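Quick start: read one record
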Amino acid sequence: MSRAIVIIGPPGAGKGTQARRLSEKYGYPQISTGDILREMAQAETVLGQEIRTTLASGKLVSDEILAEVIRTRTSLPDCKNGYILDGFPRTINQAHQLEELAEEQKKEVLLVRAMVHEEVLFKRLTGRSTCPKCGEIYNVYFRPSKVEGVCDLDGETLKQRSDDNPEAVQRRFSEYRTATAPLIEYYRSNGRLIEIDGEGKVEEIFEKLCSLIEGLTSR
């Protein structure tokens, strides 16, 4: 049976890095609902306008729209053997919608939870900055640039994301805990939860993750 792999974790836990590696290893497309919604919001359609207005107001797009977005994207040929979801599901209702879809597609849903202590995450997020020109990422705690605030590669002034300030980071942690706790228990109760320590070396984390995925799906 092919897989639908859901990756969750608090902000800064390295979900994107592991998702990219899984995508390369298994040939599964990495599907980000955030990227899809932002792209759809650019379209001059009724749905595009609705999504654009919702995103601009800071509200969440409805479960029905998200479910349709996921259904449409995962129906494409590149998802036949499996896919990786980033940003969906985020609620129990969305999890049930994914279960129904996966059953139709004859896919097994696995939830991967990346676990990192919040003290480490806080430094990862509040200390990081990015070069707007080349995309190189730095961190004042773990990987500082040679000259403070300047990219080593091209001399551009480094930028920090607006939501990487301490207050916003704490708020994002709180929202994550509230939203994902029910999901974690839901997938743990039916034996499809994979929990991985996200604080080690990227390659070691990935090798352990693949081993756990293969062990769970070969039962």
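Helices lie at 15-26, 33-40, 46-57, 63-74, 92-105, 118-126, 166-189, 202-217.
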